[in-house]
Design brief:
The complex is a heterodimer of chains A (about 230) and B (about 200). Chain A has about 230 residues and is α+β, with helices and mostly antiparallel strands. Chain A folds into two domains: about 100 residues, Nitrile hydratase, beta subunit (Cyclin A, domain 1); about 100 residues, SH3 type barrels (Roll). Chain A is built from eight helices and five strands, in the order ααααααββαβαββ. Chain B has two domains: about 30 residues, no CATH class; about 140 residues, Alpha-Beta Complex (Nitrile Hydratase, Chain A). Helix content of chain B is about 45%, strand content about 10%. Chain B is globular. Classes of the chains: A alpha+beta (about 230), B mainly alpha (about 200). The interface between A and B is large, with 79 and 83 residues.
């Protein structure tokens, strides 16, 4: 979903505020919340993709005005109620009234699920391949950040096959696909004014990528974009 | 903006979590001792000291450095470091020409076993929004001015890989032991928002 959580490249949040000698948890309840969520995920009451999507489904104004673990609390309560593990009534009676999400979890996108299932577990791309990210805008969960959509990049590494979050967050069958480290130039993402020597690397599922036809773009192929350092 | 810092005024969240925990325990869904153990692990056992050991070893043991860059999960396991959010660890190395920075723009992905849980600023809207768009400006705010000719590589952790930065070994540390070197390594340097300062001159006494 094109939610408020997808923040890469946004303006308006001001400087980064840092805290000196920050504790791991700022209050006892934060630690309990962290542990409850991890334990419930570990025990299989919901998976991490459903959890992330439940955070994304927090109404945007509330998302912005919540602290980090308040968002975890909202998400856990949403999932417990939706999955019928604990009812809203039960929570409300105990003084833990859950906040309604912005939208119910979208039904499994059948087209996406079908595409994901038919995708080969054998890697479609190889390091050095030029790709373009697809312009996907599903109502459900996706890990293709908006700022990287419909942009050209280069496959740098094949990370191996992993379960696709897009279907896993919506009760779909576990579809494994190759994930690639894709390199994007800052100028590709942010326009020609961006610095030439800045790059963003992001791990993307095969479903998010389409091949760039091997068009003869002069001067582009020859220039190595990958000197120095290591990845 | 709540998400940019931490609100210290008590909120309903504390009461809601308490009630929720009681309800989950009553239903036998969570074991309070298991919760205690998780909290204790992240408050006392897992943190950036782990990552610092990894970095110091990479600086002093070229074969380990090579293994770390090839497969960080396996390499840190040699030091007994493993755990959730560290199953697919990737180490990226800073050089005089290349500076790496890690972020998670969509949520808060972070390499727990080596760095512990992320600080609030890493999860803040400001950091998440700006790291991929204006890394140089962001680093300047952290007090790190990089020369224009240094390439910046930003790693946005959006899948299963979790990143840690291997910072440059500072000058003046040639005679230091691995343990002494580990003391110099900061969390911020392993996120990529800081360099490691050369050690202060030792007292001649």
């Amino acid at each position: 979903m094109n939610g408020i959580h997808d923040m890469g490249g946004m303006d308006g949040f001001g400087p980064v505020v840092r805290e000196k000698d920050e504790p791991v948890f700022h209050a006892g309840w934060e630690g309990r919340m962290f542990a409850i969520a991890n334990l419930l995920i570990g025990q299989g009451y919901f998976n991490v993709d459903e959890f992330r999507h439940a955070i994304e489904r927090i109404p945007a104004p509330r998302y912005l005005n919540s602290t980090y673990y308040e968002r975890w609390l909202d998400a856990v309560q949403t999932l417990l109620a939706e999955k019928g593990v604990v009812t809203r009534d039960e929570m409300e009676r105990r003084g833990a009234a859950p906040h309604p999400p912005s939208q119910p979890a979208a039904a499994l996108d059948k087209t996406a699920a079908k595409r994901a299932q038919t995708a080969r577990v054998r890697a479609k791309f190889r390091p050095g391949d030029r790709v373009i990210t697809r312009n996907l805008n599903p109502l459900g969960h996706i890990r293709l950040a908006r700022y990287t959509r419909a942009h050209r990049g280069v496959i740098r590494r094949d990370r191996g096959a992993y379960v696709l979050p897009d279907t896993n967050a919506h009760g779909g069958p576990p579809c494994r696909q190759h994930v690639y480290s894709v390199e994007f130039k800052a100028t590709e993402l942010w326009g020609p004014e961006a610095p030439q020597n800045e790059r963003v690397y992001i791990d993307l599922w095969e479903d998010y990528l389409a091949p760039v036809p091997k068009a003869p773009v002069r001067g582009r192929q020859k220039k190595s974009t990958h000197k120095g350092g290591r990845i | 903006m709540a998400g940019n810092g931490h609100r210290t005024i008590p909120t309903g969240a504390a009461l809601r979590v308490k009630a929720l925990e009681a309800l989950l325990e009553e239903k036998g869904l969570v074991d309070p001792q298991a919760l205690d153990a998780i909290v204790d692990t992240y408050e006392t056992r897992v943190g950036p000291r782990n990552g610092a050991r990894v970095v110091a070893k990479a600086w002093t043991d070229p074969a380990f450095r090579k293994r770390l860059l090839a497969d960080a999960t396996a390499a840190v396991a040699e030091l007994g470091i493993a755990g959730p959010e560290g199953e697919h660890l990737v180490a990226v190395e800073n050089t005089p020409r290349v500076h790496n920075l890690i972020v998670c723009t969509l949520c808060s992905c972070y390499p727990w076993p080596v760095l512990g849980l992320p600080p609030v600023w890493y999860k803040s809207f400001a950091y998440r929004s700006r790291a991929v768009r204006d890394p140089r400006g962001l680093l300047r705010e952290f007090g790190l001015e990089l020369p224009d000719d240094v390439e910046i590589r930003v790693w946005d952790a959006s899948a299963e890989q979790r990143y840690m930065v291997i910072p440059e070994r500072p000058a003046g540390t040639a005679d230091m032991s691995e343990e002494e070197l580990a003391e110099l390594v900061t969390r911020d340097s392993m996120v990529g928002v800081a360099k490691i300062a050369p050690p202060a001159r030792r007292s001649s006494r």
